[in-house]
UniProtKB/TrEMBL annotation:
Keywords: ATP-binding, Kinase, Magnesium, Metal-binding, Nucleotide-binding, Pyruvate, Transferase. Its EC number is 2.7.9.1. Residues 61-297, 304-353 form the Pyruvate phosphate dikinase AMP/ATP-binding domain. Pfam families: PEP-utilizers, PEP-utilizers_C, PPDK_N. InterPro entries: ATP_grasp_subdomain_1, PEP-util_enz_mobile_dom, PEP_util_AS, PEP_util_C, PEP_util_CS, Phosphohistidine_dom_sf, PPDK_AMP/ATP-bd, Pyruvate_phosphate_dikinase. NCBIfam families: PRK05878.1, pyru_phos_dikin. It comes from Clostridium saccharoperbutylacetonicum N1-4(HMT). Its cofactor is Mg(2+). Gene3D superfamilies: 1.20.80.30, ATP-grasp fold, A domain (3.30.1490.20), ATP-grasp fold, B domain (3.30.470.20), Phosphoenolpyruvate-binding domains (3.20.20.60), Phosphohistidine domain (3.50.30.10), Pyruvate Phosphate Dikinase, domain 2 (1.10.189.10). This is Pyruvate, phosphate dikinase. The active site is at residues 455, 831. Mg(2+) binds at residues 745, 769.
Length: 877
């Protein structure tokens, strides 16, 4: 049996989106509903995939199916391609499963040639319009299909205007435009070495080829990566009879939404222009009228229009975004789709649709993009100001939101200037834990190096501060205190603005606004919580972050990274002393200084969490992050420790590692220096006992051991913890429940999880390290070379942002199964950055994890993604 690659609109329906693309499936559905749609056919996404399989060539089989359907279209419309009295003209547009606005190509007025243009002039009694359409078609076809620069055509128009002594395109007469058409064809021949294709069938096949090709243009590839759209989906091509809104005062064109896309109000919202083509509305040459005016101008058409809008919304049970054209008093709908909307509007519409009885709560939950919630929690740029700005560079969208301020070059500077009331953006090559205070003080953070799990990215997300990372085109000169972008130099007195949602950097001041959270947010999130089975915890290292997490609905802390507490100015010295100590005695002196600090942190966190579960991880610092590097720091520390500068400098040099991320970190530290684990276990337990007593909670601390790869090392560290806890309980005369578990972030731990589970009461998947070690990619350097991988389509996504379900996911599945085989009630969670990514959260739900843990600002997103996963694939408790 031969495959069917081309469908008439009357042969499809809305459920065929994967095959026909979103636009095509909806055109088919509207046709079935009896809505007036200019007819046409759809070349399927499978044909697109076949085009690529066949080495970028449309096969003869597909071409003959296209011509068969074209013949049927000619029959239904009574028009013929290239006819000298009644020519058929079509538009050729892309249409993937989901809409990718502006990413792919469109060709209008296809079918025009020297014969058809005369027929059109005669039919419309408007030769100027006919020749204007023709010259636009030649221009569009040459640019989009044949890759001839648009500019060359624009030059010809300018030359002609100068020759005729006129200022505007609209001043050119029909005769002028005819002359222009001849010039355009000459230009085409010069560029291509052949005549402009006058056979419409030729034009059609070339145009369909161009749309297929545009599926793989660079901007489409980037858009797909940002929006999680797999390359294998392909695009369909819609070939649709043209109708004209510019045939005089009884014609017109417009766009409409069935509800307000900005605020969600239930009222038709739209704009139109009489005697105009679609592009006139979009290009803003003439100011369109508000849709209500159509009711006054033409009540009959408006009534029909309103009826169709309501039919479509009722039918799709969602807000629709539609294009329509009126051709000589007859209304056509050219397209409908679920409309894009702001986060505020999305929430209001979802809640309203449930209240109007159109949707169930489960259906409504699927109507809001989890990532959209981000925009409700962070400042954004003022839309009007943003429209006027042009980005000077682009980095990774590491932490969402928008920030604007003057440039600060060091963390100290950021801190000091912010204290004086200045708005600053911290610009660094990369950040290190020492920068924490400056990062807190800055409005936003911009780094030249680093990926989505670099220090800057992780910490910024945790704090909810906007961050653009890995922006390699910026040159930072710390000494001169300047940055240079594309040859332009910016100083500490200059403003920059950064957009952590898009990764864009602007060399100017753009005002920011904090969005208001409406009551619909709470109602909607309440439904998400009723539905979801996966729990949501937060990664939080301070009482401040813990409070924020609870406000956003976190049900516990899944990861408290204790090393993050050590960078405050008044602590770092003691920590460095602990690390550089030559013997146990020296180390114990340092640890004694740190114990009360740790304990007070844990008390603050327990209090903020009000009895909710808290997982605290033992120290896991790559040593290089802590070692003193500046001479003055080494001098100060040596003095504090009562040793010489040279002695300490020697130790620092000895501690240098070539690959610190695979070096002396994680539980390896506790194996070498068990007294560190002892101190931490003591602080964790003493704090819990105190808070239980003072606040009446029943805290069950969860102590987590990082970077385990072997059961014996886990057992060694666990024994140290258990002995310490027993000792503390004895001292205090209290018994306390507690748990000891481990991170699974080394492939060996995942593969031997049945063994590991003998000693671990819980597993938390540290997918940052697990991804790093499974791929063998450095977390901090991968962004640099991944760009080439995206370009060459080896990878479509950053595996540090979106879980690699095939590889890393297999390790998680293996570990979960093996862990449960040994310990059926083992508690399973994830605390890598993927815990805040919607598709990764869905994977965790489907794999049977108990919770995800993510930065506080992603908690609402995670709650929604978990509910959506449950609706899509229900799982028992
Ligand atoms: C991880 O590796 O996924 C993790 C959570 O630990 P960290 O990012 O602190 O290495
Ligand atoms: Mg880790």
């Amino acid at each position: 049996m031969t495959n069917k690659y081309v469908y008439l609109f009357s042969e499809g329906n809305a459920s065929m989106k994967n095959l026909l693309g979103g636009k095509g499936a909806n055109l088919a559905e509207m046709t079935t509903l009896g809505i007036p749609v200019p007819q046409g056919f759809i070349v399927t996404t499978e044909a697109c995939n076949k085009y690529y399989e066949d080495g970028r060539k449309i096969s003869d089989e597909i071409i003959s199916q296209i011509f068969e359907q074209l013949a049927k279209l000619e029959e239904t419309t009574g028009k013929k391609f290239g006819d000298n009295t009644n020519p058929l003209l079509v538009s050729v547009r892309s249409g993937a499963r989901v809409s990718m606005p502006g990413m792919m190509d469109t060709i209008l007025n296809l079918g025009l040639n020297d014969v058809a243009v005369e027929a059109m002039a005669e039919m419309t009694k408007n030769p100027r319009f006919a020749y204007d359409s023709y010259r636009r078609f030649i221009q569009m076809f040459s640019d989009v299909v044949m890759g001839i620069e648009k500019r060359l055509f624009e030059n010809k128009i300018d030359e002609l205007k100068e020759k005729k002594g006129v200022e505007f395109d609209t001043d050119l007469t029909a005769e002028d435009l005819k002359e222009l058409v001849a010039k355009f064809k000459e230009l085409y021949k010069k560029e291509k070495g052949e005549d402009f294709p006058s056979d419409p069938k030729n034009q059609l096949i070339e145009s369909i080829t161009a749309v297929f090709r545009s599926w793989d243009n660079p901007r489409a590839i980037v858009y797909r990566r940002l929006n999680d759209i797999p390359g294998e989906w392909g695009t369909a091509v819609n070939v649709q009879q043209m109708v004209f809104g510019n045939k005089g005062e009884t014609s017109g064109t417009g766009v409409a939404f069935s509800r307000n896309p900005a605020n969600g109000d239930k009222a038709i919202y739209g704009e139109y222009l009489m005697n105009a083509q679609g592009e006139d509305v979009v290009a803003g040459i003439r100011t369109p009228l508000e849709i209500g005016k159509l009711k006054e101008q033409n009540p009959e058409i408006y009534a029909e229009f309103e009826g169709i809008v309501n039919t479509l919304e009722d039918h799709y049970k969602d807000m629709q975004d539609m294009e329509f054209t009126i051709e000589e008093g007859k209304l056509y709908f050219l397209q409908t789709r679920n409309g894009k909307r702001t986060a505020q509007a999305a929430l209001k519409i979802a809640v309203d649709l449930v209240e109007e009885g159109m949707l169930t709560k489960e259906q409504a939950i699927l109507k809001v993009e989890p990532k959209q919630l981000d925009t409700l929690l962070h400042p954004a740029f003022y839309t009007e100001d943003l429209k006027k700005a042009t980005p000077i560079a682009k980095g990774l969208p590491a932490s969402p939101g928008a920030a604007c301020g003057k440039i600060a070059f060091t963390a100290d500077e950021a801190k000091d200037r912010a204290a004086l009331g200045e708005d600053v953006v911290l610009v660094r090559l990369e950040t290190s834990p020492e920068d924490i205070e400056g990062m807190i003080a800055a409005k936003g953070i911009l780094t030249v190096r680093g990926g989505m799990t670099s220090h800057a990215a992780v910490v910024a997300r945790g704090m909810g501060t906007c961050c653009v990372a890995g922006c390699g085109t910026i040159k930072v000169n710390e000494e001169k205190r300047t940055i240079e972008v594309n040859g332009k130099v910016y100083t500490a007195d200059d403003y920059i603005s950064i957009d952590g949602t898009s990764g864009n950097v602007y060399g100017e001041r753009i005002k920011t606004v904090t969005p208001e959270i409406s009551g619909h947010f709470a109602i909607f999130m309440g439904w998400a919580d009723e539905i979801r089975k996966l729990k949501v915890r937060a990664n939080a290292d301070s009482p401040r972050d813990a409070k924020q997490a609870v406000e956003f609905g976190a049900e516990g802390i899944g990861l408290c990274r204790t090393e993050h507490m050590f960078f405050a100015e008044d602590r770092i010295m003691a920590v460095r002393q602990m690390i550089t100590s030559k013997d146990v005695e020296q180390r114990k002196v340092a640890l004694a200084k740190i114990l009360p600090m740790q304990k007070s942190d844990f008390i603050g966190i327990y209090e903020a969490m009000e009895g909710r579960p808290v997982t605290i991880r033992l120290l896991d610092p790559p040593l290089h992050e802590f070692l003193p590097t500046a001479d003055q720091d080494i001098k100060d520390l040596a003095k504090e420790m009562g040793i010489t500068y040279d002695e300490l400098k020697g130790t620092v040099q000895e501690l240098h590692e070539f690959n610190p991320m695979m070096g002396h970190r994680g539980c390896r530290l506790a194996v070498s220096y068990p007294e560190i684990a002892e101190m931490q276990a003591r602080a964790i337990i003493e704090a819990a006992i105190e808070v239980n007593k003072s606040k009446g909670h029943n805290i069950v601390p969860e102590i987590m051991i990082p970077l385990v790869g072997e059961i014996k090392e886990l057992k060694y560290v666990k024994d140290v913890i258990v002995a310490t806890v027993e000792e503390v309980m004895k001292e205090k005369g209290v018994t306390l429940q507690y748990k000891v578990g481990t991170m699974i972030e080394i492939p060996r731990a995942a593969l031997t999880a049945d063994e590991i589970a003998k000693e671990a009461e819980f597993f938390s998947f540290g997918t940052n390290d697990l991804t790093q070690m499974t791929f063998g990619f450095s977390r901090d350097d991968a962004a640099k070379f991944l760009a080439a991988y995206y370009e060459k389509k080896i990878y479509e996504q950053d595996p540090f942002a979106k879980l690699d379900q095939t590889g890393v996911g297999s390790l998680i599945k293996i570990a979960a199964e093996k862990g449960k085989a040994t310990r059926p009630d083992i508690h399973l969670g994830i605390c890598g950055e993927h815990g805040g990514d919607p598709s990764s959260i869905e994977f965790c739900h489907n794999t049977g994890l108990d919770y995800v843990s993510c930065s506080p600002f992603r908690v609402p997103l995670a709650r929604l993604a978990a509910a959506q996963a449950q609706v899509k694939q229900p799982r028992p408790l």
